[in-house]
């Protein structure tokens, strides 16, 4: 049985990459809803509908755990935590815990899609962990289109300008930790770090979620007994061509001819 992972597009591959590092013997089934990306500017009802279809698709592959590697779904479609028939996790709780442990001055910045930021999910979770934390939020609607179109070079004037515009308020607020609240954002790590300064800690939601998933599997007795490297399969809702190219950037490995297009509306 495999770990099921879904996202609105490419971003969840940053979580898959971390899963491959943390749990190298686990099989992974990934679905990227590339035909309907992005989720971050959709209504709550639409996000919930899409997320449920994504979950249904992964369940059809008999997965043993499901990860919503999408900050928007993790923030908005919270009912999935209790209605999904296998262990289910999003990225919010693991990432918030990592940020709360990392901060030194108690001032944390959160960047994410508009839907994620409007939900205040990270803020609520962080306040539950430590009510004394100060949380500063900023939606970054241009980040996903930049990443999806391959604009990630920190020296690119477009990337640099957008990143500096979005992170400007955090420097004024004096945050020492910034949550990358969307799984697309790790590909902009260098640009964001450059804008914020080396003294600011960036929290990668994919890495935090991979570590949490390892714990979740152990607690539920779902670890694989295999000692051989796991197999990963990839599915998308639009043409695989561009996905295959960009996925190689996310994963650091070639997955050409390993991606299948499906009709997500059937689920």
Structure description:
By secondary structure, this protein is α/β, with parallel strands linked by helices. The chain folds into two domains: 3-90 and 207-266, Rossmann fold (3-Layer(aba) Sandwich), CATH 3.40.50; 92-205, Rossmann fold (3-Layer(aba) Sandwich), CATH 3.40.50.1860. It contains twelve helices and ten strands. Helix 12 links the parallel strand 9 (232-236) and strand 10.
CATH class of the largest domain: Alpha Beta
Q: How many structural domains? A: 2
How far apart are the termini?
20 Å
Helical coverage, percent range? 40-55%
Structural Rg: 17 Å
Q: What is the topology, as strand order, of the major beta sheet?
A: 4-3-1-2-9-10
* SSE pattern, N- to C-terminal: EHEHEHHEHEHHEHHEHEHEHE
Largest sheet: 6 strands, parallel
CATH topology of the largest domain: Rossmann fold
CATH architecture title of the largest domain: 3-Layer(aba) Sandwich
Outline type: globular
Low-confidence stretches: none
Discrete helix count: 12
Mean of pLDDT: 93
Q: Which structural class is indicated by helix and strand composition?
A: alpha/beta
In short:
The protein is built from twelve helices and ten strands. It is an alpha/beta fold.
Task: Please describe the topology of this protein.
Blueprint: E1 3-7, H1 13-22, E2 28-32, H2 44-59, E3 65-68, H3 71-76, H4 80-83, E4 88-89, H5 92-102, E5 107-112, H6 114-119, H7 121-129, E6 134-139, H8 143-148, H9 157-173, E7 177-180, H10 189-196, E8 201-204, H11 205-219, E9 232-236, H12 240-251, E10 259-261
Parallel strand pairs: 1-2, 1-3, 2-9, 3-4, 5-6, 5-7, 7-8, 9-10
